[in-house]
C-alpha cells in the first residue's frame, strides 16, 4: 500500500480499518438475515437480553450443515442459510463486545485438540503414500439427487428476486 504524500488525509487513512474490503454482497446477506431477526425478535435484542453462545453456535451449525447438504434457502422463510450463519457469528461477536455474551462454552480442551489434530495431520501423508496408486473419483453436490432440488431452489430464489424487482 502506498500513500500519496500530497494529501495529508492519505497518510492518516493508510492505517485505518479498510472497511471497503468487505464485499457489498456479504453486507447484503448480513442485512437480510438481521432484517429477519428484526422482524422475529426485535432489533438488537441480544444487546438488551444477552445471547447464549451455545444457542448461536447450534444455529450456526444447523445453517451450515443445511447449506453443506445442498439446501441454499431456509424452507421456513426463504432466507439464505449462509446469511443466517453470518448473523449467528455477528451476534456472538457483537454480544461479546457489548458484554452481553453468556459464555456457556464447555471447559477448554484446546491443548488436547491441538495434539489430536497434529497427530492426525502427521498421519495424513502416510495414508496418502499408502494409497498413492489410487485415483478415486471425488463426488460433489452435482452428483447427488439433491442437484435437482438445488437447481429448483436457485430458480425459486431468482423468480422471487425478479418479482420483488418488479414490485
UniProtKB/TrEMBL annotation:
<protein>
    <recommendedName>
        <fullName>dATP/dGTP diphosphohydrolase N-terminal domain-containing protein</fullName>
    </recommendedName>
</protein>
<feature type="domain" description="dATP/dGTP diphosphohydrolase N-terminal">
    <location>
        <begin position="6"/>
        <end position="105"/>
    </location>
</feature>
<dbReference type="InterPro" id="IPR044038">
    <property type="entry name" value="dATP/dGTP_diPOhydrolase_N"/>
</dbReference>
<dbReference type="Pfam" id="PF18909">
    <property type="entry name" value="dGTP_diPhyd_N"/>
</dbReference>
